[in-house]
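Run: sequence + zinc ion -> complex structure.
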Amino acid sequence: MTRRACAHKPRASRSRCGPRRGSKPVCSGCQQRGPIYDHQSQRRFEFVPFWGFMVLLLYRMRRVDCRACGVKIEQVPWGCGKHQLTSAYMLFLAHWARKLSWKETAVSFHTSWEKVCQAVELVVAWGLEQRTLGPIVAIGVDEIAYAKGHKYLTLVHQIEAGCTRLLWIGRERTVASFEQFFTLIGKELAEKIEFVCSDMWQPYLKVIRTRCVNALNILDRFHIVAKMNKALDEVRAGEARRLAQDGYEPVLKKSRWCLLKRKTNLTAKQRPDYAMCCATT
Ligand SMILES: [Zn+2]
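>> structure
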């Protein structure tokens, strides 16, 4: 490409680009070179800003008279489709949009929110095209709350040594929403999953049971401990009532924390209580 740089307006650097003399345009349909059909009017492409200056490439696109595809717009190495931004600038914006909000990214680089959004969409679409899903050995499913009220998203991560990545996000934490993940990966991959980590949320357990038929469902320790503590407390309260009814000294009353604690963490005052509880029960 030949290029002549000029700056008509402050804060923007414009570079007029042209094709190499005698070069044939590349067809955007089949990526083969073909004869020129005609020249379009000048288009501007935004490049990565330089020291606060917008950098604009000005170029007259050519149309190719392609044998295979007919008349097609040429393919240029710095852009794609009808986007006004160059691919380099879109990657640049998408990179910053991971660190800042989209609005902050737009303000920082003197562009619009819509263009940041386009850049992110393009990168996400590219990522989805390149993504290979399988094989999946272990997944973890969890919910996160967002906004006010009980609004949840379901997140599925792949959790294997050397490969931890977010696989899927779905609205709600219902059977129907979690089912969508398994529809996405298909029956064959789902049946090859060996481990699923989850909490004890019933809709998740139900889907895991029916879709991951060969997997071991590992339950979240926090929920198991919470359930065990609750069960222990119910037994203790029941026993305390029974002892009181039978006319015994109510040793189990106010012993909740004493029973739940590790033996080594008991205070000097709690130790005799603990011994008494064990002796009584
Ligand atoms: Zn073609």
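>> summary
Residues 1-78 form one domain. The chain has four domains: 1-78, 86-131, 138-219, 223-280.
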